Amino acid sequence: MTAIVVQAQRLLTPRRPRRSFFESLVRTLIIVCTAMAVVLSSVSICDGHWLLAEGRLFGLWHFCTTNQSEPHCLRDLSQARVPGLAVGMGLARSVGALAVVVAIFGLEFLMVSQVCEDLHSRRKWALGSVLLLISFLLSSGGLLSFVILLRNQVTLLGFTLMFWCEFTASFLFFLNALSGLHINSITHPWDPPRKF
């Protein structure tokens, strides 16, 4: 084919309608908020010190006593004298880290659907939103297991900034997942009418 024939075919093919500014803005905000949630959750999981109670600092990775001038941290969580803490924290760590990984894949699908617009970009956006919803479930499961394990030591003022970062990230995963699914359903029909 010559270049003229290719250009003529390109002019004759129907073009997809352009997205509105509002839709592009909302999708961009969802991606930015998801990226912030991934960073918050990653920092919170890596630091892991989530609860300060009675001179003891409970974390996902360490248990510290802060009675002395310098904190004394131990990786053996069984020395905290809380039944099931070592196994439970392993579960909370694993679920929290898996939530971050799933959220990163969800974020990747959201970004790819916006950068490479093709026939499957709506499906990629929906899949990314579903992955964010799964990430919310995993993240909130890790938070809930941490709180249940340390239910006798928990006070509202005892939670550290890292705990609240994970809580905020989990909430953002939920909001972004629902917003992503909603914007996808109101702007594009799931099954567009087909021509026979």
Output the strand order for the largest sheet: 1-2-3-4
User: Shape, please?
Assistant: elongated
Query: What does the largest sheet look like?
Result: 4 strands, antiparallel
Rg over C-alpha atoms, rounded to the nearest angstrom = 23 Å
Distance between the termini: 29 Å
Query: Strand content of the residues, in percent?
Result: 5-15%
Tell me the total number of β-strands. Answer: 4
Structural class: alpha+beta
Give an account of the 3D structure.
This protein has 196 residues and is α+β, with helices and mostly antiparallel strands. The chain contains five helices and four strands. Strands 1-2-3-4 form a four-stranded antiparallel sheet. Strand 3 (63-65) and strand 4 form a beta hairpin.
Annotation keywords:
alpha+beta, 8% strand
A few lines on this structure:
The protein has 196 residues and is of the alpha+beta class. 63% of the residues lie in helices and 8% in strands. It is elongated, with a radius of gyration of 23 Å.
Helix and strand layout, with pairings?
Blueprint: H1 3-12, H2 21-47, E1 49-53, E2 56-59, E3 63-65, E4 72-74, H3 85-115, H4 121-149, H5 161-187
Antiparallel strand pairs: 1-2, 2-3, 3-4
